[in-house]
Amino acid sequence: MLPRLKERYRNEIVPALMKELGRENPMAIPRLRKIVVNMGVGEAIQNAKLLDAAVQELGQICGQKPDITRARKSIANIKLRKNMPIGVMVTLRGDRM
Questions:
Q1: Which of 9, 53, 61, 63 has a CA that sits 20 to 30 A from residue 96's CA?
Q2: Rounded to whole angstroms, what are the CA distances from 50 to 5, 11, 25, 39, 41?
Q3: Could you tell me the pTM of the whole model?
Q4: DSSP of 64-78, one letter per residue?
Q5: Digits of tens for pLDDT over the chain (97 positions)?
């Protein structure tokens, strides 16, 4: 069974792109390789429990365990330090799309 988004891409989006771009060959159409779902949790700086809720919600939406994203730089104005958890993300590839 094909995933819902992949099936829609093949049946609806590829023919529309072929018509719009004027291509005869469906292999000349750009392919969908991955879908990245990201959730920034700005309030997680003060309350780390909000990050746990975000992990649960994104896991239920995507059906896959999300990765926790961390701050790359420190920002003194908002009391953010390097490597503090600030969000979650999921990358969907292949049949998980």
A1: 53
A2: 29, 39, 48, 12, 7
A3: 0.74
A4: SPPEEEE-SS-BGGG
A5: 567 778 888 899 999 999 999 999 999 998 888 999 999 888 877 787 888 899 999 999 999 999 999 888 888 888 888 988 889 999 998 888 7
Of 55, 45, 53, the closest CA to residue 89 belongs to: 55
SS3 50: helix
